[in-house]
Design goal:
Layout: E1 13-14, H1 19-25, E2 29-30, E3 34-39, H2 45-58, E4 63-67, H3 72-81, H4 87-91, E5 95-99, H5 115-124, E6 132-136, H6 138-142, H7 148-163, E7 168-174, H8 183-190, E8 193-202, E9 205-215, E10 225-230, E11 233-236, E12 252-253, H9 258-263, E13 268-269, E14 273-278, H10 284-297, E15 302-306, H11 311-319, H12 326-331, E16 334-338, H13 346-360, E17 364-368, H14 377-393, E18 396-402, E19 423-432, E20 435-445, E21 455-460, E22 463-468, E23 470-472, E24 475-477, H15 479-564
Parallel strand pairs: 3-7, 3-8, 4-5, 4-6, 6-7, 14-18, 14-19, 15-16, 15-17, 17-18
Antiparallel strand pairs: 1-2, 8-9, 9-10, 10-11, 12-13, 19-20, 20-21, 21-22, 23-24
C-alpha cells in the first residue's frame, strides 16, 4: 500500500488524547510513522498505546492492537477499565485485537519470522489499512529468537512493512538499566519517535514520568515530565507557560489583618504567592484562614486545601478566632478540600489540586501545609509547576510550610519553595519569663517596602491582631513582659501628665498673680502720672501767677517814676 504524503506539521501528527503529551510533542505522535514506547515494567507503555489508539478511533479511524503478553479478553477489559467511552467501538469492531502470544505448549524450531502475524494484521480490515497498529510487548516475541541477527532481521521486516502502510505504528518494548545492545537498540534506531516512560519509587511511593527521547523532523519538549495513572488513563502535568506571559497586577489584597497589611505596605499583590513558615502551633493555618475569609468577604471565589485537618474541623477551629467559613461555603464562594491521611506522591497531590482549581475556578488558593509533599527534588518540582500554573491563571496563592525545628530558630523551610514565593512571612515562638508567645516577621516581599520590625501575633475570640513588640537592651519583649512594659510606660506617661498638670496650674497661678500685680502697678503708675501732670500744672500756674504779679508791680513802679520827674523835688 502506498504511503501517504506529508502535509503541514500540524496535520502530520496524530493526537494521543493525552493533552500534556500532545503539548510536549507539538501535536502528538508522527502520523504514518513508527513510534516506540519504551520503559521498565509497570511504567505505562501499554496504557499509552491503548489511549493513543482509542483517541484516534474515536476521531473516526480504526485500529489493530496486537498483544504479545495479554489475551484478547484481557486487552478488551483494559480498554473498558478507563474512561475512554470505547465500548461501542469495540463492539463495532473498529478496534480489532490480535492475539500475538505463543502458546505455552508450542516449541520453536527452525527458522521463524513474523510474516504470518503481519498477514493477520492485514486481514483485520480487508477494505483498507487501519489508521493505527499497535504491537504491544513486541520484545516478548523477539526474545524467543536465538540470535541478535534474527531479531534485527525481523525488526527490519516490521520496518519495511510499516513503510508500505499509511498507518501510524506503535511499538512497546521493555528497557532495563545497563541492558546490553541488541534488538532494543535497533528498535530505537528505526523508530521516528521514541517515548521513554519511567517508573521509580521514592519514600515508598511510585512515581512515573515521560520524556521524548527522539522525534525526527519535529521540535519537542526536552525535559522529563511526571504523569499519573487515573481513571482517564495517563494524565501528564501541564507544562507551564513562559514567565513573560504571566499577568502582572499592581492591585493590593488584604490578608485580613489590618496591621499586617500595613507592614506589607498595603497588602500583597494580586496573583502573587505567599509563604507562611513556622513551627507547629505558630498560627500558620489561622493566618491562612484569615486570608481566605478576607477574599470571600470581597465576593471572590477561594479554594482551601488542607492536609492535616478535615473541612469540618477547619470550620470549627476557625470559628474560635472569629473566622466564619460556613456562610461562604454555603454560598459556593469557598471550597474546602481535605486531604488528611492521604498517602500519595507529590505529583498525585499536585494533580488533584490542579483538578480542584479547574473545577472551582478560584481567584485565591490556600495550601496548608505545602511541606507535606515537598521532601525531595521531584516533589519540589511538583510545587513549582503548581505555582507556575496559578501565576499563569492570575490566582493569588498562600501556602504554609512547617519548619524542622520546634523552637522556630531557623527560617529554612522544609518545602524549599521560599525562593519561588513573592512574599515570605515567618512565624516563631519567643519564650520569656515562663511564657511562649508568637512572633511575626516579614522575611521578604517583592516590590514592597515592607516592615523589618518584629510583631507579636495575638489570637483571641475576637479575632487576630498584631501588637508592636518592645525592645529593651537588645531583647524583644512579648506577652507579660510586653504588658508590664506597656503598663510601666502608661504609668510613667500618666505621672508625667500629672506633673505637667501641676506645673501648668502653678504657672497659671503665678501668671494670675503677676497679672494682678501688673494691674496694681499700672494703676499706681497712672496715678503717679496724674500726680506728675498735676504738679506740673500747679508749678506752671505758680510761675504764671508770679510773672503776672511781677508785671503788675513793674507797671506800678513805672507809673510812679513818671509822676515825680516833671516837678523835680516835691
Amino acid at each position: 500500500m502506498p504511503a501517504t504524503q506529508d502535509s503541514p506539521a500540524t496535520a502530520r501528527k496524530m493526537p494521543t488524547g493525552i493533552a500534556g503529551f500532545d503539548r510536549m510533542s507539538g501535536g502528538g505522535l508522527p502520523r504514518g510513522r513508527v513510534t516506540a514506547i519504551v520503559g521498565t515494567a509497570g511504567a505505562g507503555k501499554t496504557v499509552f498505546a491503548m489511549q493513543s489508539m482509542a483517541s484516534l478511533v474515536k476521531a473516526g479511524g480504526n485500529g489493530v492492537f496486537v498483544s504479545f503478553e495479554q489475551s484478547p479478553q484481557s486487552v478488551r477489559e483494559s480498554f473498558r477499565a478507563f474512561d475512554w467511552d470505547v465500548e461501542e467501538l469495540l463492539e463495532a469492531g473498529r478496534i480489532c485485537i490480535v492475539d500475538g502470544r505463543l502458546r505455552s505448549d508450542v516449541a520453536v524450531s527452525g527458522s521463524f519470522d513474523i510474516a504470518g502475524l503481519l498477514a493477520c494484521v492485514d486481514g483485520a480490515f480487508p477494505s483498507g489499512a487501519p489508521s493505527c497498529i499497535a504491537f504491544d510487548g513486541i520484545d516478548a516475541l523477539l526474545t524467543i529468537l536465538d540470535s541478535t541477527a534474527l531479531q534485527r532481521t525481523e525488526l527490519l521486516r516490521l520496518q519495511e512493512y510499516a513503510e508500505q502502510l499509511p498507518s501510524t505504528v506503535i511499538l512497546t518494548l521493555k528497557l532495563y538499566p545497563n541492558m546490553s545492545a541488541g534488538f532494543e537498540e535497533m528498535a530505537l534506531y528505526m523508530a521516528d519517535c521514541v517515548v521513554e516512560l519511567e517508573r521509580s519509587t521514592e519514600d515508598g511511593l511510585a512515581n512515573r514520568s515521560v520524556r521524548i527521547q527522539k522525534y525526527r523532523s519535529s521540535g519537542h519538549a526536552q525535559s522529563r515530565v511526571p504523569f499519573l495513572m487515573t481513571e482517564k488513563g495517563i494524565e501528564i502535568a501541564a507544562i507551564a507557560p513562559e514567565p513573560a506571559r504571566f499577568p502582572v497586577s499592581s492591585e493590593r489584597l488584604s490578608l485580613g489583618i489590618p496591621r499586617l497589611d500595613e507592614m506589607l505596605a498595603g497588602g500583597i499583590f494580586r496573583g502573587s504567592s505567599t509563604l507562611l513558615s513556622g513551627s507547629p502551633g505558630t498560627a500558620k493555618t489561622t493566618l491562612g484562614n484569615s486570608f481566605i475569609r478576607a477574599s470571600c468577604a470581597q465576593g471572590e471565589r477561594a479554594l482551601a486545601i488542607f492536609f492535616d485537618e478535615s473541612p469540618g474541623e477547619i470550620v470549627r477551629n476557625a470559628a474560635s478566632v472569629n473566622i466564619e467559613f460556613a456562610p461562604h461555603v454555603d454560598s459556593g464562594l469557598l471550597r474546602l478540600h481535605g486531604m488528611a491521611g492521604r498517602s500519595a506522591g507529590a505529583d498525585e497531590f499536585a494533580h488533584e489540586i490542579a483538578g480542584q482549581v479547574r473545577e472551582h475556578r478560584p481567584r485565591h488558593l490556600l495550601i496548608d501545609p505545602v511541606s507535606t509533599f515537598t521532601g525531595s527534588e521531584s516533589s519540589q518540582n511538583a510545587v513549582r509547576r503548581l505555582l507556575l500554573m496559578c501565576k499563569h491563571e492570575g490566582i493569588t496563592v498562600v501556602m504554609t510550610s512547617l519548619l524542622d525545628r520546634v523552637q522556630g530558630e531557623s527560617e529554612v523551610t522544609r518545602s524549599y519553595v521560599s525562593t519561588l514565593c513573592d512574599n515570605w512571612i515567618h512565624l516563631a515562638y519567643v519564650v520569656q519569663s515562663g511564657e511562649r508567645n508568637r512572633s511575626l516577621t516579614i522575611v521578604k516581599s517583592r516590590g514592597s517596602a515592607h516592615s523589618n520590625q518584629v510583631g507579636e501575633l495575638l489570637l483571641s475570640s475576637d479575632g487576630i491582631s498584631i501588637a508592636d513588640a518592645f525592645t529593651e537592651d537588645g531583647a524583644v519583649l512579648m506577652g507579660s513582659l510586653r504588658w508590664q512594659k506597656e503598663r510601666a510606660n502608661e504609668n510613667a506617661l500618666h505621672n508625667a501628665r500629672l506633673e505637667a498638670d501641676r506645673l501648668e496650674r502653678e504657672t497659671e497661678r503665678d501668671i494670675e498673680e503677676l497679672e494682678r500685680r501688673r494691674s496694681s502697678l499700672e494703676a499706681e503708675l497712672n496715678q503717679k502720672r496724674e500726680d506728675l501732670d498735676r504738679v506740673r500744672g500747679q508749678a506752671h500756674d505758680a510761675v504764671r501767677t508770679e510773672e503776672e504779679r511781677r508785671d503788675v508791680l513793674s507797671r506800678r513802679r513805672g507809673g510812679l517814676s513818671d509822676a515825680v520827674q516833671p516837678g523835680g523835688d516835691a
